[in-house]
Each structure stands twice: as structure tokens, then as C-alpha cells.
Backbone:
């Protein structure tokens, strides 16, 4: 008996080691199985040209085919305008555009599952179909509205998170890539989705953040007045406003985008309070949207003097903002203070026609006090009614803020961020037109164009 016990005791470490190894193997398979199965060495998936040849189809939210497999090759939408407009959200089969569906959702397209591996692909000969939230026609309209400017346009439903438009320029037609794609500077950054991976100086769109901070921290700020003489001298340096506004109220300062007023507000707030509000609204925090890593928006006032603080309060200094992040801030204001995370994939359908996934609505960590969000909605609605004019956004009941972001040695970037208050169009929009000048120009035009394209009453 003792002999048997001793043998069992000797075997116990081996049993524990075997169990640990099994657990490690299962964990590794769970964590890396999808990656292993989609390796380029797997000839079940890739063609001789190195492209995914067995992937399911990709559709827009209206059921239009954006990409599909035909005869072992990937085939795209018949419209050149749609192909160019949806390039960055659909991506390329080789995976060069890392945030496109072909790369970011490759495992879903090939039909991989933890329990079945690639059995579905072997059984059906094709992967699963993805329906994206984007509206291809609206994307094409947005790209056309950007004209010759590089930049981005994004729209999402701030109640559900559906990303209805995701356009980035420069772009190209995947059916006929230009021969000088890699050498011509006009295609610089062409593989980057600027909505997801880009950052820009925000210009006066950042005054939304400063306004939130003022409403949170300065008692009675809505009844205060500020003085604008066209410029301010701070610590021996100058901060310049685009106009001389004289005595101006808080609401009028936002309407007219008065730099002097918002510089004074930033100085009254101080660096700590303004930085705390920026953090609350998601700055300096890595975040994802449907599994895609968004470029991190940065706001840093460490070591900033009063002049730098004043510039930061009006959206200049060293601040950089990701357009999709700014879209989410606008959405949080529109949605009563609760931010919603955007999603790209609306649903996944098996080869047998069964819907295996529907995108859930997920709250983000961006939040604003509901009362302050209501005050911001009123102020941003006032911007459109009083300053820009509802005629710039026919029938949309629009709220918004323009931005003219100064870029050293070049023409400013044109920004617009806003949202519709129509019950049937709970859409937030962001548009950036690089080196296009004032925000009331190209960016505002692109924002209106894409929302009009999404208006179901037309």
C-alpha cells in the first residue's frame, strides 16, 4: 500500500504539469487561434496572389455589395465613386489598410470560430458575410463634397452607435490603383483612415470642451460678459481674435467664436480644471471603436504659462484631436450627456443565411452632466440659428461648431462638428478638410451634404 502511495505521489507533479500544459494550450488556442488560422501559410484562405479568396461578402446597411468573392477573386461595387468612398472602411484583401473590414474583421469574414475553427469554411466553401453600418451612397456624397481636399467625414447614430459614414481622403479606386500611388506626394497617408487613425489641431471646435468646463466650474458664466479688443497681451505675447467684438456674452462668444473671450475663460478656469474636463471627455485616454484602435486625442498643459493656457482654451497650442473622438463628444452632448461607442459591423450572417451577430449599443466612458449637456445643446443650436443660419442645413434642426485650425506655414484646416436634433435623425457629424480655410466653408458644406444624403424624408 505504501509502495502504491509513493508511486501516486511521484505521479502527482506530472499530473499537475500535464493539466497546466493543457490549460496553457487551451488558453493559447483561445487567444491566438484566430490569428493562427488566418496565417498567410493557410492556403485554404489565400489565393496565389496573397489575397483572401474565400472570404464572405461585405454589404452596406442598405444591402449594397461592397465586396464579394467571385471565381476566387474579390470583386467590388460597380460604382467607382462608391469604391473610392468606401475604400478605407472596406479595406483591401492584402490588409495594407489595417482598419478596413478585410483586415480588422478578417476572422469573421473567413468564418473562424473558437469551437469549430475553419470547419464552416471547409463545409460551405466560403466565410461569413458582414453587413456594415455605413451607407455607401452617403459616403460617396461626402467624398464628393470634400472635393480636392484631403480630410475626413464621419457620421454616427448617437443613440445606437451605428457608424453611417466613414470617409477618408486621399483615396483611390481599388480596381485601378494609380501607378504612382507609393511615390506621388498627393497620396501621402493614403492607407490611413483619418477618421479612425488621424489627429488634428482642433481649432475652435475645442471651445466646446472649454464651454463644458466653464459651465461646470464658473458660477453664473452664462450671465457674464467679456471684453474683446481684437487681441490680448499675455505675458508679453499676443493672442489675436478674428474680429473686435467689444463687450460680449458667453453665448455670443461661442456664436462668434471669440478668441479673446474664450482665452479669458481659460485663464479663469486655470490649467487644472480645464485639463480635468478634457480628461472627463476622453482626452489622453486610449479607446476603441468596434475593436478598432482610435488615435488618442492629447491635451497637455504641464509647464504651460498663461499665454499657452489661453491658446489651449481656444483649440491651439499642442492639442491634437482624433475626429472620431470629437464625433463621440458631440454625440454625448446630443444624447443627454451619455456617450455611445461607434460600431462598424452591423451584423454577421452565416453561409446558411443565419444571422449570428447583431451589433449591440455600448456606452462609452465619455459622459457629461445631463443639465450641462442640455445647456450645450441650446448653445450649439444657437450657433446655427444665429451665426451660421439654418439655411446652411435645410430641415435638419442642426447644432454645431466650426473650427479654423491654424497650421504653421500653411492654410488652416477647416472643421465642423455637430448633430441633428430631429427625432428621426439622431446623427452626429464631423468633417475635416485639410488646408481648406475657415470651418464655415468646406467642412460645413461636407457635413450638410452627407446629412442631406442620409435624410430619409428626401
Residues:
Amino acid at each position: 500500500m505504501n509502495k502504491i502511495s509513493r508511486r501516486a505521489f511521484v505521479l502527482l507533479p506530472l499530473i499537475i504539469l500535464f493539466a497546466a500544459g493543457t490549460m496553457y494550450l487551451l488558453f493559447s488556442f483561445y487567444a491566438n487561434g484566430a490569428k493562427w488560422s488566418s496565417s498567410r501559410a493557410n492556403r485554404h484562405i489565400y489565393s496565389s496572389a496573397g489575397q483572401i479568396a474565400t472570404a464572405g461578402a461585405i454589404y452596406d446597411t442598405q444591402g449594397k455589395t461592397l465586396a464579394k468573392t467571385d471565381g476566387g477573386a474579390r470583386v467590388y461595387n460597380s460604382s467607382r465613386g462608391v469604391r473610392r468612398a468606401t475604400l478605407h472602411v472596406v479595406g483591401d484583401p492584402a490588409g495594407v489598410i489595417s482598419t478596413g473590414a478585410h483586415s480588422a474583421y478578417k476572422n469573421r469574414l473567413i468564418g473562424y470560430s473558437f469551437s469549430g475553427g475553419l470547419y464552416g469554411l471547409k463545409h460551405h466553401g466560403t466565410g461569413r458575410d458582414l453587413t456594415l453600418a455605413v451607407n455607401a451612397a452617403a459616403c460617396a456624397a461626402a467624398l464628393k463634397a470634400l472635393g480636392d481636399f484631403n480630410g475626413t467625414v464621419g457620421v454616427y447614430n448617437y443613440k445606437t452607435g451605428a457608424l453611417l459614414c466613414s470617409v477618408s481622403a486621399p483615396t483611390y479606386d481599388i480596381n485601378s490603383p494609380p501607378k504612382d500611388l507609393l511615390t506621388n506626394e498627393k497620396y501621402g497617408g493614403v492607407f490611413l483612415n483619418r477618421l479612425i487613425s488621424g489627429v488634428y489641431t482642433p481649432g475652435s471646435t475645442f471651445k466646446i470642451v472649454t464651454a463644458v468646463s466653464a459651465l461646470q466650474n464658473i458660477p453664473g458664466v452664462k450671465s457674464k460678459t467679456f471684453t474683446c479688443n481684437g487681441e490680448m497681451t499675455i505675458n508679453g505675447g499676443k493672442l489675436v481674435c478674428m474680429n473686435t467684438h467689444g463687450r460680449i456674452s458667453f453665448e455670443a462668444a461661442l456664436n462668434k467664436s471669440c478668441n479673446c473671450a474664450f482665452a479669458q475663460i481659460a485663464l479663469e478656469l486655470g490649467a487644472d480644471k480645464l485639463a480635468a474636463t478634457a480628461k472627463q471627455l476622453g482626452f489622453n485616454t486610449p479607446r476603441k471603436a468596434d475593436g478598432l484602435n482610435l488615435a488618442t486625442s492629447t491635451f497637455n498643459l504641464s509647464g504651460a504659462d498663461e499665454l499657452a493656457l489661453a491658446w489651449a482654451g481656444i483649440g491651439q497650442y499642442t492639442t491634437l484631436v482624433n475626429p472620431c473622438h470629437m464625433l463621440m463628444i458631440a454625440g454625448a452632448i446630443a444624447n443627454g450627456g451619455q456617450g455611445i461607442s461607434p460600431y462598424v459591423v452591423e451584423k454577421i450572417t452565416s453561409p446558411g443565411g443565419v444571422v449570428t451577430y447583431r451589433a449591440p449599443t455600448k456606452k462609452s466612458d465619455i459622459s457629461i452632466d445631463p443639465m450641462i449637456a442640455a445647456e450645450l445643446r441650446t448653445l450649439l443650436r444657437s450657433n446655427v440659428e444665429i451665426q451660421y443660419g439654418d439655411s446652411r442645413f435645410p430641415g435638419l434642426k442642426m447644432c454645431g461648431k466650426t473650427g479654423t485650425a491654424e497650421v504653421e506655414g500653411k492654410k488652416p484646416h477647416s472643421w465642423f462638428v455637430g448633430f441633428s436634433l430631429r427625432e428621426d435623425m439622431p446623427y452626429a457629424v464631423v468633417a475635416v478638410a485639410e488646408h481648406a480655410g475657415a470651418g464655415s466653408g468646406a467642412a460645413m458644406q461636407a457635413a450638410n451634404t452627407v446629412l442631406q444624403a442620409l435624410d430619409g424624408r428626401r
User: Anything to note?
Assistant: The chain has 15 helices and 19 strands. Residues 26-43, 45-51, 112-125 have pLDDT under 50 and may be disordered.
